[in-house]
């Protein structure tokens, strides 16, 4: 079987939220002689990217598919990384967390899973994270992006969330070095909301959020 | 006609002077009384008083039993809720922290004897006394397949639901189902006459149709079987569910559908037609930044789609506290104006 077929079979399994079937595809590829590096760079990453496109174009894709895309990709990548002959090149660094007052972790977990499989280093700050902690962690870790998840309207729009992160970046002269990405249910209901909270970008779901974050990393590094 | 009669007329398609107009001002009550959110939600009488004041001022049709995400978790052992003065309370302590906790997790024999029920009962007692004969009193019931999300966190629940052992998943769902049945019975007995059955996993926004049909639907049937469904409104937590409306009619017999602002309302109305009630819901998150004119225009758009041939209700979603009062007034004034029936 060629890699395109593996990618198709893998993504069909993910789309059907069938983890054993997806892992079977990976194991078959390993069995057929593909290296762990090839599995990650030629199967998992293209599969995640193709899934991002599919999810972006398909408004009917569901949360379970997003969750499985991230979980399976992260699991496979983690297992393959252990077998790499040399450490992979990391494309950038992100600090991520749920906004102050927000205790939801699902969206963040989906984004983290996808980012890890795309070779982005992720620092997970957890839930209920203050603006100051976001900025301090981004500086301490040389992160290009702060990703803020907010599932409630008041945590998305409130003064202690993205708005305060923007203010702190401005105050410390970091706006060119660190970008802000936001996501969560309120942004789906008002696609212009991200601008009102001072973010640079937003995404409608966790999988496409990873794509948006990679774009921001590239902008900062350009 | 009373608001209750207007609601019945809309469901049954009989003549009425206007469509029903539902508005959720539960979170706004603390500001109405000038008290902190924690003090407000810890006092059922105050929750009722604030809503009755706003009902008098705005004239919409319904009130709400005391509810916040986490109230059901408190009845099931949650010890910590995070209150905020600019938004709704949220669960800060998960009852189920690991899969091992599922075996130890117990449903109270009678939730009405639980201390956390007291505020709900106080709220419903006052609402029932003041408007029980005239107005719809809404109560929020989380479906058994969604309840685990507030008991263990959404990500942990997704993990168990999609990748975990089926026997453990079903053990948890059985317990949640016991609770849901008790909750419905208790809320109805205390005076709630409209049950908003919140089932986000009953939408293909959350899971695919295969999982919905094989796993979610049977549990929803078990949730709703005991008391029937005549007071029940199908709601997927603001997620769109147009593609399951027919299934909900056929397999759950629920006639009232609370349509997400993200769904195509015209399509929903065509599917439901005269079989039941289409609830057209405004995207009230946008109301935070809309002008009063923009708010009015959106109300008109929604009602223009839904009002033809009746069987229609205008409603709100989460009604964030940041919505300016002028927009709340503009929305309700427009709903009364455009919702008038010949």
Looking across the biggest beta sheet of chain B, what order are the strands in? Answer: 1-4-5-6-7-8-9
The largest interface is: A-B, 33 and 37 residues
Number of domains of chain A: 2
Helix fraction of chain B by DSSP (H/I, runs of at least 4): 40-55%
Mean model confidence by pLDDT of chain A? 93
* Count of individual beta strands of chain B: 9
Estimate the helix proportion of chain A, in percent: 55-70%
Proportion of β residues of chain A? 5-15%
Rg for CA atoms of chain B = 19 Å
**Main sheet properties of chain B:** 7 strands, parallel
The whole-number mean of residue pLDDT values of chain B reads: 96
Biggest sheet descriptor of chain A: 5 strands, parallel
Describe the structure.
The complex is a heterodimer of chains A (222) and B (342). Chain A has eleven helices and five strands. With 222 residues, chain A is of the alpha/beta class. Chain A folds into two domains: 3-81, Methyltransferase, Methionine Synthase (B12-binding Domains), Chain A, domain 1 (Orthogonal Bundle), CATH 1.10.1240; 92-221, Rossmann fold, CATH 3.40.50. A five-stranded parallel β-sheet of chain A has the order 2-1-3-4-5, with helices on both faces. In chain A, helix 1 packs antiparallel against helix 2 and helix 3 (36-57) runs antiparallel to helix 4. The longest helix of chain A is centred in the first third of the chain and has 22 residues, at 36-57. The N and C termini of chain A lie far apart (38 Å). The model of chain A has no long low-confidence stretch (mean pLDDT 93). With 342 residues, chain B is of the alpha/beta class. Chain B has a single domain (3-338), classed as TIM Barrel. Helices cover 47% and strands 11% of the residues of chain B. A seven-stranded parallel β-sheet of chain B has the order 1-4-5-6-7-8-9. In chain B, strand 2 and strand 3 form a beta hairpin. The radius of gyration of chain B is 19 Å and the shape is globular. The chains are: A alpha/beta (222), B alpha/beta (342). Chains A and B meet through helix 4, helix 7 and helix 9 of A and strand 3 and helix 9 of B.
């Amino acid at each position: 079987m060629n890699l395109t077929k593996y990618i198709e079979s893998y993504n069909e399994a993910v789309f059907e939220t069938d983890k054993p079937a997806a892992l079977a595809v990976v194991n078959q590829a390993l069995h057929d002689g593909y290296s762990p590096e090839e599995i990650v760079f030629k199967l998992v990453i293209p599969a995640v990217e193709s899934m991002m496109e599919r999810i972006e174009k398909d408004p009917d894709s569901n949360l379970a598919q997003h969750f499985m895309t991230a979980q399976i990709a992260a699991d496979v990548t983690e297992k393959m990384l252990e077998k790499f002959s040399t450490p992979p090149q990391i494309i950038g660094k992100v600090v991520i967390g749920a906004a102050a007052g927000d205790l939801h972790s699902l969206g963040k977990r989906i984004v983290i899973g996808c980012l890890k499989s795309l070779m982005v280093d992720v620092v997970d700050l957890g839930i209920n994270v203050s603006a100051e902690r976001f900025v301090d962690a981004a500086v301490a870790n040389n992160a290009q992006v702060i990703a803020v998840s907010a599932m409630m309207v008041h945590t998305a729009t409130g003064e202690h969330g993205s708005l305060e992160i923007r203010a702190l970046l401005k105050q410390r002269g970091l706006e060119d070095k660190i970008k802000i990405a936001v996501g969560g249910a309120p942004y789906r209901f008002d696609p212009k909301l991200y601008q009102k909270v001072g973010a640079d970008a937003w995404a409608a779901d966790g999988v496409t959020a990873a794509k948006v974050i990679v774009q921001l990393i590239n902008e900062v590094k350009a | 006609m009373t608001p209750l009669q207007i609601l019945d007329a809309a469901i049954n398609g009989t003549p009425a002077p206007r469509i029903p107009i539902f508005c959720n001002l539960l979170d706004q009550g603390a500001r109405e009384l000038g008290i902190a959110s924690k003090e407000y939600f810890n006092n059922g009488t105050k929750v009722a008083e604030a809503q009755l004041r706003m009902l008098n001022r705005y004239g919409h049709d319904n009130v709400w039993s005391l509810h916040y995400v986490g109230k059901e978790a408190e009845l099931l052992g949650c010890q910590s809720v995070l209150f905020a003065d600019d938004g709704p309370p949220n669960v800060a302590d998960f009852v189920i922290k690991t899969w091992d906790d599922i075996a130890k997790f117990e449903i109270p024999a009678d939730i009405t004897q639980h201390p956390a029920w007291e505020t709900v009962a106080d709220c419903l007692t006052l609402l029932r006394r003041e408007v029980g004969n005239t107005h719809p009193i809404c109560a929020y019931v989380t479906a058994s397949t969604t309840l685990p999300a507030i008991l263990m966190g959404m990500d942990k629940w997704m993990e168990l639901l999609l990748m975990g052992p089926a026997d453990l998943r079903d053990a948890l769902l059985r317990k949640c189902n016991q609770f849901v049945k008790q909750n419905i019975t208790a809320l109805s007995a205390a005076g709630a006459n409209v049950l908003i059955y919140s089932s986000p996993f009953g939408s293909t926004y959350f899971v695919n149709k295969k999982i919905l049909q094989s796993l979610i639907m049977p549990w929803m049937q078990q949730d709703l079987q005991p008391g029937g469904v005549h007071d029940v409104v199908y709601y997927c937590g603001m997620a769109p569910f147009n593609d399951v409306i027919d299934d909900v009619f056929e397999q759950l017999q629920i006639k009232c559908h609370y349509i997400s602002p993200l769904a195509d309302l015209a399509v929903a109305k065509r599917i439901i037609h005269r079989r039941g009630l289409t609830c057209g819901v405004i995207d009230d998150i946008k109301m935070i930044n809309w002008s009063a004119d923009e708010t009015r225009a959106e109300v008109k758009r929604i009602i223009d789609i839904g009002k033809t041939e009746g069987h229609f209700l205008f409603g709100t979603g989460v009604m964030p506290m940041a919505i300016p009062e002028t927009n709340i007034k503009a929305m309700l004034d427009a709903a009364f104006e455009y919702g008038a029936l010949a």
